Every structure is written in structure tokens, then in C-alpha cells.
Amino acid sequence: MTPVLEIAGLEVTFPTQEGPVAAVRGVDLTLEARKVLGVVGESGSGKTVTMLATLGLLPAGAEVSGSVKYRGRELVGLAPRELRKLRGAAVAMIFQDPKTSLNPVQPIGHQIVEGIRIHHPDVGRKEAAKRAVELLALVGIPQPDRRARDYPHQFSGGMCQRAMIAMAVANDPDVLIADEPTTALDVTIQAQILDLLRDIREEKGVAIVLISHDLGVVAGLADDVAVMYAGRVVEKGSVDAVYTQARHPYTRGLLASVPRLTDTRHGPLQSIGGGAPSLLHLPGGCAFHPRCPHARPNCQVDDPRLRPVAGVEAACHYAEELGPVASK
Amino acid sequence: MTGDPILSVRDLVKEFPARGGGKVHAVSGVSFDLAEGETLGIVGESGCGKSTTARCIVRLIEATSGQVLFRGRDVLRLGRKDLRKLRADLQIVFQDPYASLNPRMQVWSIVAEPLIVHGTPTKQARARAGELLELVRLRPEHAGRYPHEFSSGQRQRIGVARALALEPDVLVLDEPVSALDVSIQAGVLNLLEELRAQLNLSYLFIAHDLSVVRHISDRVAVMYLGQIMETGTRDDIYNHPAHPYTQALLSAVPIPDPAAERRRKRIVLKGDLASPVDPPSGCRFRTRCWKAQDVCAQEVPALVDRGHGHPAACHFAEEVQVVP
Questions:
Q1: Minimal Cβ distance to A187: which of B45, B183, B189
Q2: What is the pTM of this model?
């Protein structure tokens, strides 16, 4: 199968007053057509920056190197004009906070029309407006013809996210990048939006990159998963393999530290000691070594690369010795 | 529950004036008991009134009506002086460890402030602040630092140390871990559990995360639009939920287990939360409920045991297992 999106050796550095900050340090990711790739990691792990770099949406001054290919076409270094043609058309994005991502002074329908006509100037206003109403119906907005005339403040958070999804799929993208799409929403509304994303994927055959800090959300939607830490992918594989046979101590720590709805134990949770490292002063060797219960002296010097280990890929020198995780 | 409750809330009501006239019915007749040494989890989505309830209890805002009995005394009727004394026994920890600590104060003085306010000489208060920092597993030698020099998890520990300064009996914890990354959250939850046992504290633990609430609570109350829909022990609520809202809520929580997620049947609610300015008549949940009938619009279902061993406020309460 040909991947729709191939990220290889991606590096992103931001100049700051205190020195350069390496936010993404050599990331490789592959998104297959019609699949969902989950990208998990905590704040500052580089998951959002990786996707912004993919779309050429980083602020001026950010240094980007490596390669991002959409259907074989290189996007890094592509002229802004060409990138604009791609964004919102072949590759679309939805963000965490739907309220601030919509224009507050334009009706929702109008914003969808604009998104269609930017990429298809030949489509008339009337036709685009009709299409906007169809899209709002598709994402489950009741009375779509009337609601198309509403402004974002007249929509609830969940409805705004539906409208964002309508806008994102307006031009039939084959890649949808969803950055924490349900984080700002309540759990019953989150369930609605996750259902909608499942439907959109089925009906439109769109491949999705799902960025989330929530291991549960990713488990329910993704086919494959990549775990990021300090600007690197430290583990990846199919969701089943990673969730049941993780080989990286960070992934295992994350999975062990989340309280689960199904948990009947009352005892202490396993926690990962320390905090995320400063990207300005990354530890030498493996960036996780100061927090790692399995670290040995060479972990402070040798930077482990991602390599295949029993069904997954893990960036740990001792991945083989860790063995499979005892399932909960 | 054994013995007298340390905290009893009775018919608590809080209404705010709404924009353009009318009232926001934020909390509409909430009652519950907190036993000594117990953790009661209050869970619900945004706008359900859980934080407003917390704030009324510690009197950061004034309730419209109702009673909050702390060891039998009504907190809502205390004068200024008595209220100050009471605050020593009843403390609150907030969600956002960034917004709730004064950025221009050194950590020792943040932690010592309640002591100084209550008349402890500065020197003693400073020494005590060091002990409190140790209690929450921070290094006392960092007492001279400022909040920005700490990580989010450490800041939340500072907030807990401050709340513990006056040796309270009850802590109201308002979303204490929801701003934290998961690897940090576990450490703070463990600390809270250790402190509860060590200091014989009682917790009112307010959160939207049902997994966290299951982990930490002995008993749980589920709120929707200003009212308690169902309450019971942890096992009652998670293993034998009888209210449709509790069932929908539990079935919506994602589980970090791909195989379980694929097998699960979800109850996906239609629509959004109704407006607290104009709450539905009868049962407030009926506008999103798949079981709703005419009676639900006419009669408010009382929060009583309907044969499931714990109270549920639903005319058609029926136990369904939704957690795999």
C-alpha cells in the first residue's frame, strides 16, 4: 500500500533568547491511506509541532529539515503558494479549541462556503452554499439550512467542532489531521465527535492523524500509534501491539499510570518519577534516562534509535530484556 | 456509612442572575453527606454545578439557600469571625496550579500565609512551611523559590501544602489533577491518598474524569444540570448504575485497551446540555434521555432507592452494566 503521508527525519528548531530549542528531533511517521494513526505524548513532546511542520504552518524563524511527502510529493521547502493549494483541500486540519478556530464575525455557513471557493473558484456561491448545508447535515447539525446562518457564538462547543469537521471535509481531503479534537469537550460530547470521525473515515475514506494525550481516545479510534517523548518517537506499532506489548519504559509507564474506568483496585498508581525535560537542556544519551527505572550507565551516553522489537518498534537499548507487559 | 457525617449538605441552591433577565439555576437542591475519613467523588460534565457546589460549601460564593453543616454547625450562617475559624477546618484546592499561586510570592510565604493570617508568628510559620513542603514531598530547601520555578505537578503539591497548613479536617478538591499530564497526575493522586490516611482527612473530590473518580472515591455522586442524578458507593455507581445518565456517562469514557474499545457498546447521547437558565420541567435529563416518557416532563423524579440498593433520580431506573 502506498502511504499518503510519509514523514522522515523531520527536525524542527526554534530560535529563542536562551538558545535554539529542538522541539522535533528526527521523527519518522507513515500514514497509510484510509488508516488512523494516533500520536500520543504529553505536553511538549512535539506532537503538535510535527503536524504544524507537515502543513507548513510554523511561525517564521522555525528551522525545518527532513522530509514530509504527501503521495510522494515533497512538502518541506515547497513554495507557500503551492502549500496553500494543498491545505484545506487534500490535507485538512482540525484543532483542539473549535471556538477560537472559527471566525466569530462570520456565519458558519459562510465560512464553509469560503473554504470551498478558495480551492474551487469555479463553484458558484449558490452551489457552494447548498453544499455547506449538506456538509452541516452530514456532521449531524440539526436544521442545517437554518443553522448555517448562525454565528459561532450561537453554537455549543460540540457543534462548533462538528462545523470544523464539516469545513475540513468540504474539499474531500485524503488526510485529516485532528489535533486533540475532543480535549475541550465533555465526555458525552466527545463520544459524539469520535463517532462522527469514525463515520467520516468510513464514508469519505479519509486517513486521519489523531493527536491526543488521551490513551483511551487513541485506543478507540486508531489503527497504529506512535508515542512521542521530548521531540522523538520512542515507540510505534499497531494499537494492539503497543497497548499490550509495549517495549519502551516510557510507554509502559504511561499505560501503568492512567487510572482506568475498569480498575477495581484501590491501591497506589504507578507513576513516572520526575518531570518532562526542558528542551533547552536535554539530557545526553536517551532523553528519558533520568526518569527511567531501567536506565544503565550507557543510557546517559548512547542515544537509542527506533528499531523493531517483537511486534513493535522501540527506541530503548534494553527493549528485549523488558519483556511483554503483564496485562491488567 | 458509620458515625455522624463530618459535612452534611442539605437542599443547597445557588442561582445567578442571567444576562438579559432570568436566573441561571446552577445548583438546584443538592443534598449529600460526607463521613469522617471518607472520599466522596462528585462527578459531572461542565455546567452541572459541581464547582459551584464546592464554592458554596467553603463560602467563596454565597449560596441562595440551603444548609451546609460542618460537625453540625451551619456554615452558611456563620459571621465573619466564626467563618475565619471554620476555614481552618475546611480548605479548598483549585484546579489550575498556575492561576492559584501568587507568582510574586516565594513558596514558603505562599504556604505560610494561612498560618500568618491566623496569628502564627512569621518565624514559626516559616519553619512550619518547610515541614509542609516535606509533607507533600517537595524539598524544603526550595522554599525560597517562586512558583514559576516549579513544574505543574509540583505547583499542585504547593497548593495542597497551603491547604494543609491549618490542619483542616476536610479538603474540598476542585478538579485537582485535571490540568496535569498523566505521568504527573498519578503522583499527585497517590500523594492525596497517602495524606488522607496519614492525617485522617475527609475529601470532597470534584472532577469530570470518571476514571480518576473511581480510583480515589469511596462513594460517588453524579450531577447533571444542578442536581444529583444518582449516588452510591463506588461499586454501586460503576458496577450497578441505574440512572440512564450515569450509564451514558460511563459508556462514553474511553478505555486505554483497543480490544475492549472495539467490543464495547456505547450509549451515545443526542444533543447538548439543556440551558440552566431554562432547565427542562420534570427530570432535567429528559431532553437527552432515550427512556423519557410523558411523566418525565411532569414529575421531578426523587433521588430515592428504587430497589437497586442506592438512590437514583429516574422514574425508569434500571440497572445496566456498562463498564466492561
A1: B45
A2: 0.91
